[in-house]
Write a structure and sequence with these properties.
heterodimer, A: alpha+beta, Aldehyde Oxidoreductase, domain 3, 5-stranded antiparallel sheet, 4-stranded mixed sheet, 4 helices, elongated, B: alpha+beta, Ubiquitin-like (UB roll), 5-stranded mixed sheet, 5 strands, globular
């Protein structure tokens, strides 16, 4: 198990290799990327910041919980900070287990808890040159069914 | 006793700083620290923002010790 905040592009293949082993029959790779539209506004890029010490602590706790709850799944997570462009991976979660059910469940658990608990914030840059801190609680307040948020 | 309040993202922008040293009387809580920050800039913060003490989520009733790091946490948006 390993979790990290990184200031460079995430090497997706390296994370997949890290959880792969002869006993793991299933690996699941979740890749969250910067999307070009949010809340109906055209996005050109994103800047991620964190309360670094606490974010590292929370991320590690979440990975531990996922592993404990889902059959000792191997869990590796990297979240990127700094300036990201469209399509860049902001978070990659690699999970692996002898069977797929636990690997999928662990992956889902990590991303949902991460979005709820890890103190990371993103400043969205829009086509018109303005910037705004993303507030998922405000978004949720007027989200309609099917208005699924991204990673 | 002295504690440090940390601000992030939109809260840091609104208050124009990311760190505020506070002098509090002994027995003061995280909520007291929040109230002091709020008195510096009314309306800059929501009524009940998330709080952390020394990198762990904490309730407003959490009693502080000298040197504690109190963070006022805006809605998180990782992923």
């Amino acid at each position: 198990m390993r979790t990290a905040l990184v200031d460079r592009p995430i090497d997706v293949t390296a994370l997949a290799n890290e959880v792969a082993s002869a006993s793991n029959g299933a690996s699941v790779l979740f890749i969250g990327t910067v999307r070009n539209v949010n809340d109906g506004r055209a996005v050109t890029g994103m800047e991620y910041t964190a309360y670094r010490g606490m974010a590292e602590r929370e991320l590690a706790a979440i990975a531990r919980e996922a592993s404990e709850e889902f059959g000792g799944s191997d869990v590796v997570v990297e979240h990127r900070l700094g300036a990201l462009e469209l399509g860049d991976a902001s978070v990659v979660i690699a999970t692996a287990h002898p069977h797929r059910g636990a690997a999928y469940a662990a992956s889902r658990y990590v991303i949902e808890q991460l979005k709820r608990r890890v103190p990371i914030w993103k400043l969205e840059h829009y086509v018109d040159g303005t910037r705004e801190w993303v507030d998922p609680t405000r978004h949720a307040a007027h989200a309609s069914p099917g208005a699924e948020t991204q990673s | 006793m002295q504690v440090t309040v940390l601000l992030f993202a939109s809260y840091a922008d609104t208050l124009g700083t990311s760190s505020i040293p506070l002098e509090l009387s002994s027995g003061a809580t995280a909520g007291d620290a929040l109230d002091q920050v709020r008195s510096l800039a009314a309306d800059a913060l929501p009524s009940k923002p998330l709080l952390a003490v020394n990198e762990r989520y904490a309730r407003p009733e959490h009693v502080l010790a000298a040197g504690d790091e109190v963070a006022i946490i805006p809605p998180v948006a990782g992923g």
